[in-house]
Specification:
This protein has 2 domains: 169 residues, NAD(P)-binding Rossmann-like Domain (Rossmann fold, 3-Layer(aba) Sandwich), CATH 3.40.50; 160 residues, N-(1-d-carboxylethyl)-l-norvaline Dehydrogenase, domain 2. Helix content is 48%, strand content 18%. The chain is built from 15 helices and 10 strands. Strands 1, 2, 3, 4, 5, 6, 7, 8, 9 and 10 form a 10-stranded mixed beta sheet that branches. The longest helix has 20 residues.
Length: 337
């Protein structure tokens, strides 16, 4: 089977490195600045098992047709990458790995829906350009069919993925994507102040703010009668507990959880994009909460403010202080009261 990994940042590099290490026929579609380093030096993966450098194939575009295309770009870049490689992607199975809720709709404009497999990555990584990635935690890849809510996915396609990840098939992948959205909601605050997840959430005031963001989003999802689906090792009841328990207790639990995720600093997908001076996926994470509110005549003022602040960081290339973040979000909450 010929496999392509389109976009080799944090998550894409793990797919490329692990599949290459297992002897699969895989090529990474990468940025120009990555190509020579990957071809000449290989891809270095650091994890709790140690450090390994893997020989990989990489190019800036696909030169021949593939059987499976793993899209690991940020959702903002999906259409550009599709158009640049469309001929080589004809007939291929398509696996999404993007955060947020919109990837399948974008891909569905270019590929047959029966060829699209929804993926939810339940592992974390940090990319150090041009050719190093740290595998921080986790090894599960959740898959399903967002267009039919079926567990039926081509078994041949899953075989190479199952060699390197723990692949779990579920139906109601739409509901699972909503639960993953809540997990990703916490990426926004480190992006605003420019600190790691661990440093950010060791501060209980910031942990409280994260809980409030989740509470606002959960209330909205509940009003819209969206059925959230549990993920392996992350039952929906955990989220329900977070948003319903006393604020101080929830913040303390969140702080402990983040501190124990990884010994290496975790920066989250949004901050990693900002550090590389690229537009982040905030519109497809907290922005999805804002969009859901607007489409159903509700309000999500706190998440809306957070989206605005992340864009401000992107535009001015300067982080906010913790004090500015708390002050501006407190103004929103006071106004709502």
């Amino acid at each position: 089977m010929k496999i392509a990994v389109l976009g080799c940042g944090a998550i894409g590099s793990l797919f490329l490195g692990y599949l290459s290490g297992m002897g699969q026929k895989v090529v990474g579609v990468v940025k120009e600045y990555q190509k020579d380093a990957l071809l000449n030096e290989g891809l270095t993966i650091e994890s709790k098992e140690g450090s390994v450098t893997v020989k990989v194939k990489a190019d800036t575009v696909l030169r021949e047709k593939v059987d499976l295309a793993i899209f690991a770009t940020k959702i903002n870049d999906l259409e550009e990458v599709i158009k640049a490689n469309k001929q080589a992607l004809e007939g291929a199975f398509i696996l999404t790995t993007q955060n947020g809720l919109a990837a399948e709709n974008i891909l569905g404009e270019y590929f047959p829906k029966e060829k699209i497999i929804t993926g939810i990555v339940m592992f974390g990584a940090t990319f150090y350009p041009p050719n190093k990635v740290v595998h921080n935690f986790g090894n599960k890849l959740i898959i399903g069919d967002v267009f039919s809510d079926s567990e039926e996915v081509n078994q041949e396609i899953l075989l190479p993925l199952s060699d390197v990840f723990e692949v779990v098939k579920i139906n109601n992948i739409k509901g699972a994507k909503y639960l993953k959205l809540f997990i990703n909601l916490n990426n926004c605050l480190p992006a605003i102040i420019g600190k790691s997840m661990q440093d950010t959430y060791s501060d209980l005031e910031l942990a409280k703010l994260a809980i409030r963001l989740n509470q606002e989003a959960y209330s909205l999802v509940d009003k819209c009668n969206i059925q959230i689906q549990s993920l392996p090792n992350y039952p929906k009841e955990r989220l329900q507990g977070f948003v319903s328990m006393p604020l101080n207790e929830a913040a303390s639990l969140l702080s402990q959880t983040m501190a124990n995720l990884s010994k290496e600093p975790l920066y989250g997908s949004i901050l990693q994009s900002i550090k590389r001076e690229r537009r982040s996926e905030i519109d497809y994470i907290n922005g999805e909460v804002v969009k859901l509110a607007e489409n159903n005549n509700f309000q999500a003022p706190l998440n809306k403010k957070i989206v605005q602040m992340v864009h401000a960081v992107e535009d001015r290339k300067e982080f906010f202080s913790k004090e500015d973040l708390l002050s501006q979000t407190e103004e929103v909450m006071n106004y709502e009261r």
